[in-house]
Amino acid sequence: MSSLPHTLSERLQAVAGVDPELRAATKPQFGHFQSNVALRLAKAEGRPPREVAQRLVEQADLSDLCETPEIAGPGFINLRLRTEVLAAAASEVRADPRHGVEPQPTQTVVIDYSAPNVAKQMHVGHLRSTIIGDCLARVLRALGHTVIAQNHIGDWGRQFGMLVEQILDEQLDVAALDLAGAEELYRRANDHFKADETFADRARRRVVLLQSGDEDTLAIWRQLIDISLAGFHEAYARLGVLLTDADLAGESTYNDDLPRVVAELEASGAAVVDDGALVVFVEGFNAPMIVRKRDGGFGYSATDLAAVRRRVGELGADRILYVVGSEQTFHFNQVFAVARKAGFLPERVQAEHVGYGMVLGTDGKRLRTRDGGTMKLADLLDAAEERAARPIALAAVKYADLSNSLVKDYVFDLDRMVQTVGDTGPYLQYAHARLCQLLRRAEAEQAQVGEAVTVLDEPAEQTLALLLTRFGETVAEVGQTLQPHRLCAYLYELAGALSVFYEQCPVLRSEGEVRASRLALCVTVRDVLAAGLDLLGIEAPDRM
Ligand code: ARG
Q: pTM score, two decimals?
């Protein structure tokens, strides 16, 4: 099914020679779509715009799809779909198990998201990454792409030297720790590291032991990984996201690739030795990327280069997304530029950093706990669940995360987010649950539910039908632009149009074909709301 606005656009373009820039009408009296193409053409042609508009609509011959087009004001073209055309399009959405979401030419898309750090609890930044990445994975899968999730956990690096030494000093039973306990250990180790030079030296030597594969060191390291993973799993289960162990690809998994990365960087001439370190200069960056430090250690950048190389070479990525906070924009731009220069990232593979802003408290500052500490994911979910049942609390948090433009910081105002009125997740859940209730009543009354939408006399019915036909293109847009807020805005508009419909069009109190058609419309809106919420990773309960 090619979308109606698309077909109308093509026909107008064929006679106008330029994109008619068809837009949804801003008011019902302007019909369903409007275009100002005649005004633009009139200038070039030196003819009155109304005359140009008249010529265009005559030549385009839209009579099979639209009522007689209206030329308004200085020369706007207003199009109103014939109701039977609109009804047929809405009925197609009703019959289609995918509700108009069309599979795209298949790509393999690697999504790097969540990526918490071992021996530390997940914080709000990881929460955002997890929620946004999960939504993008769902949307891209629905569009038919092969999605490979990669959870690039921070499980390698210098901090493990001090963690292992602290464990040995305290003769600690690591297996008995939970993630919160591991985090306390982290703090003690860090303090110790700063205060005691000989401890710091031992920690540095311990890193070398770890990275060269010393069995005793690795055994303690593995225990730390295990308790951390248990904590992460708990968080994922609580959030209802799709990540599993199969998606884990932590920094440590690239360790064996690093010598080859270095060899290839040197062979391609991309890397040079600078003051003992191996670095890559790329144009447009004020600092080179340090691949290997003077002491021989590899850092975050080296691992990310190895990750790009593997995602392209082994996973077969056509597109790689990194859902990571905007504060790492420089890092990713540099990784992409270096990877292109080194030949790890061919032109045909797209790499995109999906950055996002900070979560702020109601005071406008970075969200913190009451005592000023960093906000843990668990604290935050606890607070949400104090205000609402779990599915609703989760909807509130996820929707707040997805409904703003990602790069913007947003204020975490739980009292607002859990409301069932306004632009919130619970509002959409409520719209869905209320429809379910109406349909339950229809069933109890043995009302006939139309297989198709057949009557669209009321403007409120038309608005709803028109919106239904836009679900597929909205999902496709999110897949392209990676902006979940467009899907949120669409669902919010749909739920709003539904309340207007309730006010103006009695459903159960109507009769005959009108009732059957209105019930068909209701079923379709319910299904689209549920499908849309599912793509956001939000549950759609039948009752609330
Ligand atoms: N662990 C990192 C952090 O907490 C995020 C990793 C993001 N992914 C990546 N490929 N660098 O900041």
A: 0.94
